């Protein structure tokens, strides 16, 4: 079963909510702002990297874990 919405937890304690189906991210240093992204790389032990729809890149601190979100 493929996860559609995941929560990322980073080394500095931030939590990001990532909607993999609709390509949006919020939380962490973004706060309640919701940004659209085109591509992302999510690997435990590495920073999360998101190429945003506006051409900028969002880089998180090191991801320590991720999993399905309880938000529907």
Element order: H for helix, E for strand = EEEEEE
Q: How big a fraction of the residues is strand?
A: over 45%
Determine the number of helices (DSSP H or I, runs of at least 4 residues).
0
State the separation between the terminal residues, measured CA to CA: 15 Å
Radius of gyration: 11 Å
Helix- and strand-based class?
mainly beta
Report the helical percentage: under 10%
Strand order of the largest sheet: 1-2-3-4-5-6
Question: Which features does this protein show?
Answer:
72 residues; mainly beta; 6-stranded antiparallel β-barrel; 0% helix; globular
Please specify the SSE layout and strand pairing.
Layout lengths: L4 E6 L4 E5 L4 E4 L7 E7 L5 E6 L4 E12 L4
Antiparallel strand pairs: 1-2, 1-6, 2-3, 3-4, 4-5, 5-6
Task: Explain what you see.
A hairpin with a 4-residue loop joins β5 and β6 (57-68). With 72 residues, this protein is mostly beta strands. Helix content is 0%, strand content 56%. Strands 1-2-3-4-5-6 form a 6-stranded antiparallel β-barrel. It has strands at residues 5-10, 15-19, 24-27, 35-41, 47-52, 57-68. The model has no long low-confidence stretch (mean pLDDT 91). The radius of gyration is 11 Å and the shape is globular.
State the gist of this model.
The protein is an all-beta fold. The chain has strands spanning 5-10, 15-19, 24-27, 35-41, 47-52, 57-68. The chain is 0% helix and 56% strand.
